[in-house]
Amino acid sequence: MWHPKLCFYQRLSVSLVAGFFLVIALLTTASTYLQTSIKHEGEQRLHLKLAEHLASDNPLLKTGVYDYEALKNLFHTLMLLGPNFEFYFADASGKLLTYSAKPGEIVRENISLEPINQMLSGEAVFPLYGDDPKSASRQKIFSAAPVYNGDELQGYLYVIIGGSQYDSIKDGLQKSKGVQQFALVVAAGLLFLLFALLLLFRFFTAPLKRLSDDMDRFRNNGFDLTGSGIKLLPWRNESRNEIQRLGFAFNEMLKHIDKQWQQIKTNDNQRRALLADLSHDLRTPLANLQGYVETLSLKDKQLDEKDRAHFIQICMKNLRNLKRLIDQIFELAYLESGHIKMKLEVFQLAELLHDIAAKFKMKAEAKNIELSVSLQQAGGFVKADIEKVERVLSNLIENAIRHTPENGKITLEVTGKADRLVVSVADTGVGISSEEIGKIFDARYQASNTERDATTHVGLGLAISQKLIALFDSKLEVSSELGCGTKFSFCLQTVEPR
């Protein structure tokens, strides 16, 4: 299990070092074993008939062994001629009777006959190892041949290939200065390779570390990009490097999260301001209503019919303003929740405009305002929620009447635009300044040139209208010139009549 404080590069480095030395150890062991096995097989096959030739060519062995001391001298002479070999004679049970070794060098007096019989059967798999009489456990390659006295098996000539003298010389060579220098060079090369691999890993993991550090700083800063100290590195999305693409995605994620975070803070501030303003707007009609109701309650018998009727009329006015305000608050909250049910139907837009114009005709005439309908696309049919379209147009016409002075003009206009109809409400009123035109759709915002009348207005009408129009994949657009009038426009999708 990894220590929790180890970084990715450190864990990767530890894994690399451990794996590197494990692979080197396995390769060295396998190489040594394979090299030794090949060498032993070659030597054993080369000297496979050595014991057979000695047994058939030497008179002491050819006719049977009788003089073991003479045979011992023969073995000693042969070992002097071939120091790579050790000679033994064993009886039919594997007991050593004579040998070329010096007294005291022999550790085991009996050898196993199984490998000898396996070799003599001709089914041996080389290299084939037999017991080394000079060791209790070691085994070596050998050559063996049976020795007969007539037809009777007298024993075996057992020749060890690569005796103790050969091993001593080989060990000495391995400890020689040249071999040690060669081993040192190989070890240095392997260490250099390991160091180069660690640097290469460092190079490849450095971008990942920078990306991880940026993520930590972003998290520790409360997921706020401002003041986090994060430098957005130039990651490339089209790169084939996965870390480059991951970094690009992280940058995009940071920008998106930061944008949403700033929007959340802005919305939160706006909600706080809206709540404060709405609380004030609710308090005003409630306070007025409470004052007049208390007056009616305390002085009911002292008031004449005219005063009582006047107080009741004022109470009703405050109740209407209060209901209007509460209705708009609930409507805006409902729209912002996103749980809107649309009742789409096909209808003729011109007919709706004439109906709405008739509804506001008396109110417009009260201010001597001309309210007209201009239809460049008279027979246009649209598919929308007729109730919501009527709500938007009613808001726009009410605003136009309130901001248009006497003898002014308001025009409801329909024009064509590709597969859509453009609906406009234009007036000749006071207009909106260029500094304020971008804020009029914010909830509770009222322009500085807002006209006052007897009805309380809380500045939610345009915010509600904009959200309603967004339900039809459109946008409420405005153009205005201060002192010359204002024009609001939106689009509706046209359809063929049924």
UniProtKB/TrEMBL annotation:
EC number: 2.7.13.3
Coiled coil: none
InterPro entries listed in its UniProt record: HAMP_dom, HATPase_C_sf, HATPase_dom, His_kinase_dom, HisK_dim/P_dom, HisK_dim/P_sf, Sensor_HK_Regulatory, Sig_transdc_His_kin-like_C
Domain HAMP: 202-262
The reaction(s) this protein catalyses: ATP + protein L-histidine = ADP + protein N-phospho-L-histidine
First-tier enzyme category under EC: transferase
Cell compartments where the protein resides: Membrane
Key word Nucleotidyltransferase present: no
Chain ranges of the Histidine kinase domain: 277-496
TM ranges: 12-34, 182-204
Keywords associated with the record: ATP-binding, Kinase, Membrane, Nucleotide-binding, Phosphoprotein, Transferase, Transmembrane, Transmembrane helix, Two-component regulatory system
Listed GO MF terms: ATP binding
Origin: domain of life: Bacteria
Cross-referenced SMART domains: HATPase_c, HisKA
Protein name: histidine kinase
Lineage: Bacteria, Pseudomonadati, Pseudomonadota, Gammaproteobacteria, Alteromonadales
